[in-house]
């Protein structure tokens, strides 16, 4: 059996002292998470976090920096997640957009409100990302390079 980690992205968005989070259903319970999701085939990490943020919150997101890279293994499922968390700005709210299945709503919460709901966090990565952001942790976006398939490396991948 081979081990394959799940590559995910998340948006750590801070505005006016509050963070943009989503309330969603996961594993048969209501949880709180950053706008986040899996990387799609052929997609860059930056493209993925922009897409996921729009699909889950109806906000257009412009990543400005990488906040951190996180590895976490779900204790019951024994699934490992590698999360690339980006921070940046929301540019525009599109309230007419349909949100992804399972998303209840997008909410803006300050750190204290998130901490008060710590039992609802989808994973410990949620609070860790917030705390790393508040500690000023930022890395340039060019730390993450996307090398799209070209004619030559497409042949090598086959």
Report what the structure shows:
It is built from four helices and nine strands, in the order βββββαβββααβα. It has 158 residues and is α+β, with helices and mostly antiparallel strands. It has one domain: Nucleoside Triphosphate Pyrophosphohydrolase. Strands 5-1-7-6-9 form a five-stranded mixed beta sheet, sandwiched between helices. Strands 2, 3, 4 and 8 form a four-stranded antiparallel beta sheet that branches. The longest helix has 13 residues. The radius of gyration is 16 Å and the shape is globular.
Which labels suit this protein?
Nucleoside Triphosphate Pyrophosphohydrolase; four-stranded antiparallel sheet; alpha+beta; five-stranded mixed sheet; single chain
Largest sheet: 5 strands, mixed
Q: Terminal Cα separation, in Å? A: 23 Å
Give the number of DSSP strands.
Answer: 9
How much helix is in the residues? 10-25%
The class by helix and strand makeup works out as alpha+beta
* CATH fold node name: Nucleoside Triphosphate Pyrophosphohydrolase
For CATH, the homologous superfamily is named as: Nucleoside Triphosphate Pyrophosphohydrolase
Provide the domain count: 1
CATH-derived architecture: Alpha-Beta Complex
Average pLDDT works out at: 93
**What is the 3D shape?**
globular
Radius of gyration: 16 Å
Q: How do the strands of the widest beta sheet line up side by side?
A: 5-1-7-6-9
CATH class: Alpha Beta
Low-confidence stretches: none
What is the H/E order? EEEEEHEEEHHEH
